[in-house]
Amino acid sequence: MSTGSSIELVFPDGSLRTFPQGTTGAQVAASISEGLGRTALGAVINGRQVELQRPIAESGTIKIVRWDDDEGKTMFWHSSAHLLAEALEALYGQVKFGIGPPIENGFYYDVDFGGHKLSDADLPAIEAKMLELAKNNSVFNWYLVPKADALAYFEAKGDHLKLDLLQGLQDGDISFVRHGNFTDLCRGGHVPHTGHIKAIKLMSVAGAYWRGDEKNQMLTRIYGVSFPKKALLDEHLLRLEEAKKRDHRKLGKELGLFMFSQKVGQGLPIWLPKGAALRERLERFMRQAQKEIGYLQVITPHIALKELYVTSGHYEKYGADSFRAIDTPSEGESFFLKPMNCPHHCEIYKGSPRSYRDLPLRLAEFGTVYRYEQSGELHGLTRVRGFTQDDAHVFCRPDQVKEEFKKVIDLIFKVFSALGFTDFEAQVSLRDQEDRSKYIGTEENWAKAEQAIIEAAQEKGLHTVTAYNEAAFYGPKLDFMVRDAIGRKWQLGTIQVDYNLPERFELEYVGNDNERHRPVMIHRAPFGSLERFIAVLIEHTAGEFPLWLTPEQAIVLPISDRFLDYAEKVLNQLNKCDIRASIDARGEKIGKKIRDAELNKVPYMLIIGEKEVEAGAVSVRKHRQGDVGSMSIGRFSDLIAEEINIKI
RNA sequence: GCCGAUGUAGCUCAGGGGUAGAGCGCUUCCUUGGUAAGGAAGAGGUCAUGGGUUCAAUUCCCAUCAUUGGCUCCA
Fold first, then answer.
1. N or C: less crowded end of chain A, CB within 10 Å?
2. What CATH superfamily classification does A258-541 receive?
3. How far apart are CA A590 and CA A579, in angstroms?
């Protein structure tokens, strides 16, 4: 409660202190410690980010934020976007500004250059201008103006974008922020002055539709990132380099896993022998895991009549975005490439009468599906036009939904842990809260499905986040996001509850009351798609796959060609022990062979020479670790078997 | 689909109006070497494709295709 002359502020640690009315965030920070006073970038008061120099108007919660706080970075990058705008105006004059928000790793500004075309080559000059302007230590002044004045200001400036933004704002006072020679419409939350921005890197230029709507004008978006210290920028750029080294497109090529062919078509991955073998091992692993918990494997064709997808609702929803229909020469039939496996599985369900005793019926298929994706969206293996889902559909009674859902969660846990994804979170994807026209099915069924997901996730103790407008058009989802070895988030597995398809396909079972009932369907794919999963696995492991998956587990390195015969014998024995291996028979020195094997990320190198031949042994060297000593092949194969068992 | 960039040897890339270069890889020869690069020689490219400008285009211009960073979309 604030009195006339003082305010009370609650700090993040729960402590409460009283300050005179009109105290600024900066004064509060300085009162805590000299260090905080120096490093503070902003304040979060009652959940709102505000500048340190603003007097605090009312009592409430306060958090002084620094660079290390997320809010600190947000304010820092937001301020940097203003600085970018100032630089652009200084360099190019008549520039219209859209929005310039902070993002996960930096900031961007959407601008309209009129006729001028900006390219990457212009970025260094803009960067230099920003750094130059930053040195002015221009204070970010936040102030209120009447809406009429705000309109007049941007009217005079001819900035139709800001005017458009203003239309959407409530009448009354509008907040502006001014620093140096630049004034912008802005909600607020800036660092004290531009001098804090010490290192800037403008990353790229891209097109972006105004307000994200493709019917609107396309603006030029400039992406950038900035830091309070040069060293932090260098570190950031190093991280990007590291990510680049792990890029699955690069590693996939280097390791001979997959390729694309212009003649085959964009977005259609081709699996090379090593990649295909890796993929098969993943499939085998999944088949086994599913078999253990009662899934039945099925196989369905790659095309189906249009009517199937009319029934399922996919035609109405995605017909226009599908590959063109395949028409038969004389019968006038119209087929579509399979974009989903579920309609086929529904037909399997329908193929014979079902009793409540048959449920749950769990049909699994590594189903290859084809979807027309816009050309600009294709990306390596993560976004393709033809891919294989580790798909399955659980048909069950309404009373079994939650239990079945939980079993699927367990399966996903098992898969993730076997593959080393220990850090993940689950996202409950629900409908758009306003626009429900995008979805099919009754309100009642949606409510039931959403409830089942939320409860199952809770009972499994999952840490979940809720995302609206992320549901599939026929039902809500539980999506699993894993965090990879360098901290990036990827969406992998998904589980979806569906009351709608059973309805549309008129699926039934006979209950113990001898009446007909409608089953519920659960769609699920722990990997999501094999393509995408392998892409993520490549980037997560940097191409150093778990031993049980890796295409080449060992390589035999003879010291000279005098030992080639023995090398062949060793290879034979390895094959017998089911160890995937090859021989490096080149006329190179051992150092070179070792180097190449290390670079190729082969887990084990078996070096053989005079000593090994005499002892009937191999000298084992482990990738990244070095020499682990000499042993018999039997011992080596035990070693490998042991390592595989620990990991799965 | 839209905006920007890119496309030269198997890979990574340099070059530049007068029909091309490096490193790695590959082949052959010499070397027979003990835990991250031994030496030499050689093969390999219609400079993405199609037009245009020019005496001459891989180089400049246009279009197409593909890749790529974004936007939109994502069953």
1. N
2. Bira Bifunctional Protein; Domain 2 (3.30.930.10)
3. 22
- Annotated catalytic residue, options A186, A342, A346, A396: A342
- Considering chain A, tell me which residue range(s) the CATH 3.40.50.800 domain(s) occupy: 554-647
Supply the CATH classification number for the domain A554-647.
Answer: 3.40.50.800
Q: What angle do CA A458, A462, A464 make, to 5 degrees?
A: 90
Q: Which nucleotide, over all strands, has the C1' atom closest to the CA of A474?
A: B75
Q: Which residues contact A70 (CB under 8 A, 6 or more apart)?
A: none
Alpha-carbon distance of A439 to A443, in angstroms, equals: 10
Q: Which of A69, A112, A391, A498 is catalytic?
A: A391
What is residue A648's predicted lDDT score, i.e. its pLDDT? 55
Q: Which pLDDT score is estimated for A616?
A: 94
Sign of CA dihedral A382, A384, A390, A396: positive
ipTM score for this prediction = 0.92
Q: Give yes or no: A248 in active site.
A: no
* Burial tier of A618 (Cβ tally within 10 Å: 0-12, 13-18, 19+): buried
Query: Architecture of A71-238 per CATH?
Result: 2-Layer Sandwich (3.30)
User: Is A302 known to be catalytic?
Assistant: no
Tell me, what's the pLDDT at A2? 44
In this complex, the nucleotide whose C1' atom is nearest to the CA atom of residue A592 is B37
| Other beta carbons within 10 Å of A136 | 14
Q: Letter for the amino acid at A427? A: Q
Q: How far is the CA of A626 from the C1' of B43 (A)?
A: 36
What is the block-wise mean pLDDT of chain A (648 residues), using blocks of 10 residues? 74 92 92 91 91 89 93 94 94 89 92 82 90 94 90 91 88 88 88 94 91 89 94 90 90 92 90 93 95 96 94 88 86 91 96 96 96 91 95 95 94 92 90 82 86 91 88 89 87 91 95 96 95 94 93 94 94 94 93 94 95 96 95 94 77
Query: Is the CB of A223 within 7 Å of strand B?
Result: yes
Distance in angstroms, CA of A204 to C1' of B15? 26
